[in-house]
Write a structure and sequence with these properties.
Largest sheet of chain A: 10 strands, antiparallel
Strand content of chain B: 35-45%
Helix content of chain A: 25-40%
CATH architecture of chain B: Roll
Number of strands of chain A: 23
Oligomer: heterodimer
Number of strands of chain B: 6
Distance between the termini of chain A: 28 Å
CATH superfamily of the largest domain in chain A: Naphthalene 1,2-dioxygenase Alpha Subunit, Chain A, domain 1
Radius of gyration of chain A: 23 Å
Number of helices of chain A: 15
Radius of gyration of chain B: 15 Å
Number of domains of chain B: 1
Structural class of chain B: alpha+beta
Number of helices of chain B: 3
Distance between the termini of chain B: 29 Å
CATH architecture of the largest domain in chain A: Alpha-Beta Complex
Order of helices and strands of chain B: HHEEHEEEE
Chain lengths: ~450, ~160
């Protein structure tokens, strides 16, 4: 159960050095408990998208810190986040990941709750004492105190006195804006299908891997080689999308040149100038993209349409639990379960007003990257699990992240480095140490 | 009514497919597919749409061939140590459609072993087979996992 981690800020600070971090950050369950309190329990955490809650009664089940929660839309159209626990005897109430229901019912003694968590009915009311006041919040499904939405993206926090959402995610809202701007109708919808992958490793390992463009050449060598040996156009299914995606992980010096890594306050990071040298660049003749671009030009005008499409940022990490790839309409959500178990939920979006084929591509990208049979993410997961196993097994204290330490520079809004740098990991741990020590990141 | 000989031939074909996977003969396994053959493993139970709904695998011969090369290549990280499988195919029901294509519905169990860890995949599959010589080639194979839609472990060797 939940331990009381009593680490002083000095002890926390001593775990993160300029060039390394202590293995306890990954391998110590006590540190994980403290992360749930001070990071996932105090920061704004992304939970769901409004398009998953179209009608009153719609709900989506997920996790917030160590708790299972249900995100709901009430009859007043407002979004609530409720602990998935009956206030009567403690039973878990919602047993499905999503759906629509006028009431949330506990099957044990048939208490039923409105989507805002208030108690609707209890059978045999007369057997409860006179003091039993159905309007008393102690008989309601417990609400998470603060819920905020940024352009359809729902965040919540267990912090009773949180800073404004934009103070935390502000430097990264431009990538959410960019995703929405890519929709000719100015609105996105999350796809019904998604993948949930469980890996046996710490949650931070996924975020570090997503900020690391040095590894694909090595980790994805097997699929890159096979994709290169396959002639273009051999597959008749998807205008070569899968083959191109697999091949694109074969980074060489040419592709690296020009890519920059950015590290911002609060642990956010991204890669930019990603497509200058033809990595996952659009094909010369692409009628689907041409039709899409025409729709975007019609909506925004040519200048804004060009500007929107020119954003070539990759793996935009909104610390601590979101990874955005706006240009592929993709989003990954990190859900930590324990110090050595994590779920990655991978979603894609429909751009409203775009040709259907653009959505088919997003679905194809999702499946190719993140299905359990993926030829890409499976190799990443293998490395995350081996890293966790190594850190769990061996008492050597220090994990090195010194690459690029001498060459990163301070730029506008944060750190900048070339591609072969572990600056993003240093940046994430800077925020981690501040949050864990109980200071603002 | 399907004659016994046809039924036996279809069963033999399914068993041979399973044998090739279990023996690690992945290139020979791919030879069982038509050049335009499709392998589809939906992500949802009862899924009908491979374009608007994500799939675990939705690949034609060319992409399956990348998958096979990866299985045979020593550098695929997730394949070290190499996993081994036992595929069981049972409850085979054979029917014929108007175009002379054979439909074979069956149940499967695939036990995979890698580095001391055992995984089990189970479900139903439907083969659409085109006659080729005295046997068949796979035009379309659909694999429905019993736990499609939930969080799944990594899958390396195909079902």
């Amino acid at each position: 159960m939940h331990t009381d981690p009593s680490l002083t800020p000095e002890e926390i600070r001593a775990m993160v050095r300029p060039d390394s971090v202590h293995r306890r950050a990954y391998a110590d369950p006590q540190i994980f408990d403290l992360e749930m309190q001070r990071i996932y329990g105090r920061q704004w955490i992304y939970l769901a998208h409004e398009s998953q809650l179209k009608k009153p009664g719609a709900f989506f089940r997920t996790r917030l810190a160590q708790y299972e929660v249900i995100v709901t839309r009430h009859t007043d159209d407002k979004v609530y986040v409720l602990h998935n626990r009956c206030p009567h005897r403690g039973a878990r109430i919602c047993m499905t990941d999503s759906g629509t229901s006028r009431l949330l019912n506990c099957p044990y003694h048939a208490w039923s709750f409105n989507p805002d968590g208030t108690l609707s009915t209890v059978p045999h009311r007369e057997s409860y004492p006179a003091s039993f006041d159905m309007t008393d919040p102690k008989y309601h499904m417990e609400r998470v105190p603060h819920v905020e939405t940024y352009r359809g993206f729902i965040f919540a926090t267990l912090n009773p006195d949180p800073r404004p959402l934009l103070d935390q995610i502000g430097p990264m809202t431009d990538i959410i804006d960019n995703l929405i701007d890519r929709a000719p109708d100015g609105e996105v919808e999350i796809a019904d299908s998604s993948f949930s992958l469980v890996y046996k490793g710490n949650w931070k390992l996924h975020l570090e891997n997503a900020a690391d463009i040095f590894h694909p050449t090595f980790v994805h060598a097997s699929s890159v080689g096979a994709a290169r040996r396959t002639p273009a156009g051999k597959s008749k299914m998807d205008q070569d999308q899968v083959r191109t995606m697999l091949e694109a992980n074969g980074f060489g010096k040419d592709q690296w040149e020009g890519i920059q890594l950015k590290g911002l306050a609060n642990g956010h990071t991204y890669m930019t100038n990603f497509y200058r040298k033809g990595v996952v660049a659009h094909q010369a003749a692409d009628p689907v993209f041409d039709r899409y671009k025409a729709a975007l030009v019609a909506a925004h005008g040519p200048d804004k349409a060009d500007a929107v499409l020119a954003v070539d940022r990759f793996n935009n990490i909104i610390y601590p639990n979101l990874v955005f790839n706006a240009q592929h309409q993709q989003m990954r959500v990190t859900v930590p379960l324990s110090h050595d178990t994590t779920i990655i939920r991978v979603h894609c979006f429909r751009l409203k007003g775009a040709p259907d084929e653009m959505f088919h591509r997003a679905i194809r990208f999702l499946s190719t990257l993140a299905s359990p049979a993926s030829m890409i993410f499976s190799d990443d997961v293998e490395m995350l699990e081996r890293t966790q196993a190594g850190l769990d097994l061996d008492p050597s204290p220090w994990v090195d992240f010194s690459r690029g330490l001498d060459t990163e520079t301070a730029g506008e809004g944060g750190q900048i480095s070339g591609v072969a740098s572990e600056m993003p990991m240093r940046n994430q741990f800077k925020a981690w140490a501040a949050l864990m020590a109980g200071e603002a990141a | 009514m399907i004659d016994l000989e046809t039924r036996a031939r279809v069963q033999d074909f399914l068993f041979e497919e399973a044998r090739r996977l279990d023996a690690g003969e992945f290139e020979a396994w791919l030879d069982l597919y038509e050049e335009d053959g499709i392998y589809w493993m939906p992500s949802q139970r009862g899924q009908t749409d491979p374009l608007n709904v994500a799939s675990i695998i939705y690949e034609d011969h060319a992409i399956l061939s990348i998958r096979v090369q990866r299985l045979l290549e020593a550098r695929a990280l997730v394949l070290t140590p190499m996993p081994y499988t036992t595929h069981l195919v049972t409850n085979v029901v054979v029917s014929m459609d108007e175009d002379g294509l054979v439909k074979a519905a069956s149940a499967f169990l695939c036990i995979s072993m890698q580095g001391g860890e055992q995984k089990i995949f189970a479900g139903r599959q439907t083969h659409t087979l085109a006659p080729a010589g005295d046997s068949y080639l796979i035009r379309h194979k659909r694999v429905d996992l019993v736990n499609a839609g939930s969080a799944l472990p990594l899958m390396t060797i195909p079902i």
